[in-house]
Amino acid sequence: METVYEFTLPKGYVDANGDIHRNGKMRLATAGDEISATRDPRVLSNPSYLTIVVLSKVVTEIEGLQTISPTHIERLFTADLAFLQDMYQRINDIEPPVMKVTCPNCGEVHEVPLNFTREG
């Protein structure tokens, strides 16, 4: 079973020197990752910060960085954050959200998964 996945960020993390870092690795999440993230003081004061903390736990590497912290994740461009969120959902087999759509030709209603990346 594969537990670590490589990725290339669409924009890349820009460090203090202006260097761009795009390649990295993400591991599968554990229950402990999500539980400990919910106890983080930043999450307790701002629940929307949960994504940042969880990603900082499962992103194990971004080229050129010694460690990954929530500060690194929050400094990513929004396109890169969306990319990592989508990847997290895909590798952890989390069902993507669906939207009901009506076919303009036949009028039939379908459920279509929402994909937040440019692929597919």
Number of DSSP helical runs: 5
Q: From the alpha carbons, calculate the radius of gyration and give it in angstroms.
A: 17 Å
Number of strands: 5
Mean pLDDT: 90
Count up the domains.
1
Unreliable residue runs = none
β-strand amount? 25-35%
Helix content: 25-40%
Write a brief structural summary:
The chain has five helices and five strands.
Topology at a glance:
Elements: E1 4-14, E2 20-27, H1 31-38, H2 41-45, H3 50-58, E3 59-62, H4 70-74, H5 78-91, E4 98-102, E5 109-113
Antiparallel strand pairs: 1-2, 2-3, 4-5
Helix pairs in contact: 1-3
Fold and architecture overview:
The protein is an alpha+beta fold and 120 residues long. The chain has five helices and five strands; from the N terminus they run ββαααβααββ. It has one domain (4-95). The chain has helices at residues 31-38, 41-45, 50-58, 70-74, 78-91; strands spanning 4-14, 20-27, 59-62, 98-102, 109-113. The longest helix has 14 residues, at 78-91. It is globular, with a radius of gyration of 17 Å.
Q: Features of this protein?
A:
5 helices, 120 residues, 3-stranded antiparallel beta sheet, alpha+beta, globular, single chain
